[in-house]
From TrEMBL:
Cellular-component GO terms for this entry: external side of plasma membrane; extracellular space
Keywords: Glycoprotein
Protein name per Swiss-Prot or TrEMBL: Ig-like domain-containing protein
Domain Ig-like residue range list: 235-314
Family stated for the protein in its record: Belongs to the MHC class I family.
InterPro entries: Ig-like_dom, Ig-like_dom_sf, Ig-like_fold, Ig_C1-set, MHC_class-I_related, MHC_I-like_Ag-recog, MHC_I-like_Ag-recog_sf, MHC_I/II-like_Ag-recog
Length: 403
């Protein structure tokens, strides 16, 4: 499967909206800068992915945790490295990254991120002039690029698809169609960029080579480092009963929290049979905690008199994780279970968004970014910022590769 012309529709259909009250008391819908990335995690995923995400603002807004430029590396949707315009250093976000990659890697990575920051600064200015926009407003340019792979029975991975996309001020701007090896303009303002980049054969070759080869090589390397360092966290698993509105029933809940892989599967079983929607199971879907891990909760309503054996199982195939919890038929523990779940759930603020700055909570950052863009757009439209995918090119290609 390749990333083709249907990208605009598929991305638009999975945007999450975050509500924030405007100064006039209204609550205009806003989509957080980073909601799209994790909402993608709610879709069926290949076995593994490596993505790099870049976000640049047209000016320094001087708000806590909101940087003029931010870059993040994500392995299987888990943050592995980070850079922002204030610290000016690329650094690891996982212990195994720090242990396995030497100083030279981080030095070159820092230089690359600094080069990208300048590239963004130049291109935001070009786009603002092209669209006759004012410097008084804040404009957002984003890019995301990477690769996704399927696991094979022998443990190897094969290329599934590459992604190289851009957005500007909340609108799809440009993406690379790797099947036809052309750039596709999503809006009229991107047509000039498409024509220019299509005529740079080295750019097309480099983009294809990176997506299908270099990105895959780094993904394999990172996964090996992760595996050899045994860093897969073991989640906590809970199976408990809660009260139902129907006197004769109880609600049985299976919950796993603290896992890092979005490929983790939660199963509820009755006498060894996997329960599904047809059996009345409802799921929260995978949601973020506030510590770079995730949680999921499934529940089903059953009779109090049910004598079946109910189990909760957590499975992650790549790491060979398999946890098993049996319900001991204890009475409903409404208060303790509700308190625990609410605490963990609120730590992620029920917002599908990774941290922009690891020192500032996701909720606070989303509020800040939401207000920033809301002010810029004068509360007259929803923000729909999509991630951009772009591999910063070497030397002269980078210099030529303006929009």
């Amino acid at each position: 499967m390749r990333w083709g012309s249907t990208v605009d529709v598929s991305l638009a259909n999975i945007l999450y909206r975050v509500q924030r009250t405007a100064p006039d008391g209204s609550a205009p819908p806003l989509t957080s800068l980073f909601s799209l990335f994790l909402s993608l995690s709610m879709l069926p995923l290949p076995q593994h992915s490596l993505h790099y995400i870049y976000t640049a603002l047209s000016r320094n807004v001087k708000m806590p945790g909101i940087h003029e430029f931010t870059a993040m590396g994500m392995l299987d949707n888990t943050l592995i490295d980070y850079f922002d315009s204030d610290r000016q250093v690329k650094f690891p976000k996982q212990k195994w990254m720090k242990a396995e990659l030497k100083e030279d890697y981080w030095k070159k990575g820092t230089e690359s991120r600094q080069s990208k920051q300048q590239w963004f600064k130049v291109n935001i200015e070009i786009l603002m002039k092209r669209l006759n926009q004012s410097h008084a407003d804040t404009h957002v340019l984003q890019w995301m690029h990477g690769c996704e792979a399927d696991s094979q029975p022998d443990g190897s991975f094969v290329f599934h698809k590459g992604i190289d996309m851009y957005s500007y001020d909340g609108q799809n701007f440009l993406f690379f169609d790797d099947e036809n090896q052309v750039w596709v303009a999503s809006v009229t303002a991107a047509k000039a960029t498409k024509m220019k980049w299509d005529n740079v054969s080295d750019l097309r070759k480099y983009t294809m080579g990176y997506l299908e080869n270099e990105c895959m090589e780094w993904m394999n390397t990172f996964l090996r480092f992760q595996r050899e360092n045994g860093t897969t966290p073991v989640p906590d698993v809970f199976l408990f009963a809660g009260k139902s509105k129907v006197e004769e029933n109880i609600i049985l809940t299976c919950m796993a929290t603290g896992f890092s892989s979005l490929h983790t599967v939660l199963q509820m079983k009755r006498n060894g049979h996997i329960l599904s929607k047809e059996d009345g199971v409802e799921s929260s879907g995978v949601r973020p905690n506030g510590d770079d891990t995730y949680q999921i909760r499934d529940h089903v309503e059953i009779f109090k008199s049910d004598e079946s054996t109910y189990t909760c199982e957590v499975i992650d195939v790549p790491s060979k994780l398999h946890l098993h919890k049996v319900w001991g038929k204890s009475p409903p523990a409404v208060l303790s279970a509700f308190f625990f779940f609410n605490f963990r759930w609120r730590s992620g603020c029920s917002v599908n968004a990774p941290l922009i700055d690891e020192n500032v909570s996701a909720c606070r950052q989303i509020e800040s970014v939401g207000q920033l863009v809301s002010d810029s757009l004068k509360q007259d439209a929803p923000l729909r910022v999509l991630f951009l995918y772009k591999r910063v090119l070497m030397g002269e290609i980078l210099a030529k590769n303006t929009v």
